[in-house]
Amino acid sequence: MKIAMIGTGYVGLVSGVCFSDFGHDVVCVDKDPAKIEMLERGEIPIYEPGLDDLLAKNTAAGRLSFTTDLKTAVDGAEAIFIAVGTPTRRGDGHADLRFVMAAAEEIAQALTGYAVIVTKSTVPVGTNRQVKHTVSKANPNAEFDVASNPEFLREGAAIDDFMRPDRVVVGVQNERAGDVMAEIYRPLYLREFPIMTTDLESAEMIKYAANAFLATKITFINEIAALCEKTGADVKLVSKGMGLDGRIGNKFLHAGPGYGGSCFPKDTQALARMGQDHGSRMQLTETVIKVNDEIKRRMIDKIMDACGGSVNGKTVAVMGVTFKPNTDDMRDAPALTIVPALVGGGAKVKVVDPQGKREGEALLPGVNWLDDPYVAVRNADALVILTEWNEFRALDLKRIARKMATPIMADLRNVYSTKDAKRAGFETYVSIGRNDFGVPDS
Predict the structure, then answer these.
(1) Is the dihedral of CA 259, 263, 266, 268 positive or negative?
(2) 307 an active-site residue?
(3) pLDDT band, very low/low/confident/very high, at 441 (cuts 50, 70, 90)
(4) Pick the catalytic residue: 28, 228, 263, 307?
(5) In the prediction, which pLDDT does 146 show?
(6) Is CATH 3.40.50.300 the classification given to domain 2-198?
(7) Is it true that domain 236-442 has CATH number 3.40.50.720?
(8) Order of strands, edge to edge, in the sheet holding 79-82?
(9) How many whole angstroms separate alpha carbon 226 and alpha carbon 235?
(10) How far apart are CA 108 and CA 139, in angstroms?
């Protein structure tokens, strides 16, 4: 099939490349000429493991191309995917649909025959009907259907998620559109991956409900971790005990400095606003948003307490600033709250992150970027682990402690154990939801 993918951000690029690997003829469109030139050279503007090889393979096979010309891409396409950004609208928490509707208007003018216009972007319930109205208004003679096909891609594991999904959700209004979508996903259907067909509204809601539930699960275990610290329980053991219950499961039960990234923050806010607008408040989701913000601020207090109440004049080495490992994404990362607080508190901050520098340099002014953790900790007064990259999971802690001016560690991902830290010679070790040692009285 011929597919046009409008938008080469994270979702659009991964989806376009993977669809081409299914054997479809995919043209990816973006308004940014520099990005298109980059992609034509085989360079990837985001960090996603394996994506560069898959892009090169399908470009060489002639199934994948890139252009700034939407009209050419749409001409003859049987399916046109809208995969543009839907950021949180400043001031009110709503998803900003300007880019979606602008794409819909351009598509309307470029249509030359029947096509299914598929919204891949995360959009509030009712948006696909708005897309249909927008296209019909811009081109009353257009022959098309709309479909909702939300993405469920984890950054750092997106290719595997696309090729071996837990489920594919497709929202359609009629059999004709459903047949087109079934043909697109035929390779997954043949391998018996679940493909769920729904109405438009249910497909749109599934995405928000899933992300809000996962954000709730993360926030719940972080609140339990805070209570564990007061009662002497170990949150890692509590998480394990909970996760062994098949009704709960062990995923997203890892205590840390709060959720971030491209999805959970904006999707929980958008769901909360939808509830308010429809007179059915999402009170649990609203509380999750509030508690997650408090958790990030509580991490600042943890670091300050470990350093004797202040970081003024001290050197702090921070390991990891992206919101999770295996991505360069800094959106709503806990580091964007924690690191500026350290700098504002008078600390000299040194940062090591395998992929975070490209975005982080602009977002975290006043820090010193280094590539080697052992160089970063030299004469440091504290070590803070913010992102659990593999590079930070097997550090030589004895070597680290010897290089530091004062061996203090704030392990905000529970990468190490109290025993590891004590054995390595750390004087103070703080973590999340566990018994720490050496924390000065505040």
Answers:
(1) negative
(2) no
(3) low
(4) 263
(5) 98
(6) no
(7) yes
(8) 64-67, 25-29, 2-6, 79-82, 115-119, 144-148, 168-171, 195-198
(9) 9
(10) 6
